[in-house]
Amino acid sequence: MTDLPGPPGAPQPPEGSAAVARPSSVDNSFWAGVASPVIGLIAAALELFGAFGPSGDEAFMAQMREQMAGQPGGQAFTPEQMEAVYRIGMVVAAVFLLVLAGLWIMFLLFMRGGRNWARVVITVVGAIWLLFTLPQVFGPVVVLDLLAVLQLAAIAATIAFAYLTPSNQYFQAVAARRRGGYA
């Protein structure tokens, strides 16, 4: 992949100097990183649409009825109102997850292009993601547990591949090229 030219007036690489070649470890990191939100979205969709028992609608409605029954003098919601609250919550959650997935992939693209700061962002966010995904491995549904393990493996691979020696050399070479060193 060739780097985009710098701003007008920026020094250009000497004639015959080739663009920095991206190693397969960076591509592997990128694709493992892309797999992470895909696996997570599949797991969320399976859980949301009730593939493993009562649908989210039914569980939410039952929980709302229990909570409202335990509150003296509380205003009761109609089933239509409870359903509306549930639907709005699901839309907000879906939009939030899609925005996070889009940001994650955007940072992966920057990392793939040789931006070291994006590699650091991927590392920090990936480590936090690992911590939040780990408890899902011990859930009651085996298929979701397996998807959580796959997601953990994809996140760990994303981070590990990003720091292999060829990856480190690539990020250093791209940084030197951008500084004008044309390594």
UniProtKB/TrEMBL annotation:
Q: Which keywords fit this entry according to its UniProt record?
A: Membrane, Transmembrane, Transmembrane helix
Work out whether the entry's keyword set contains Membrane: yes
Domain of life the protein comes from: Bacteria
Keyword hit for Transmembrane:
yes
Can you tell me where the transmembrane regions are? 30-52, 84-110, 117-135, 141-164
Put simply, this protein is called DUF2127 domain-containing protein
What is the species listed in this Swiss-Prot or TrEMBL entry?
Answer: Saccharopolyspora griseoalba
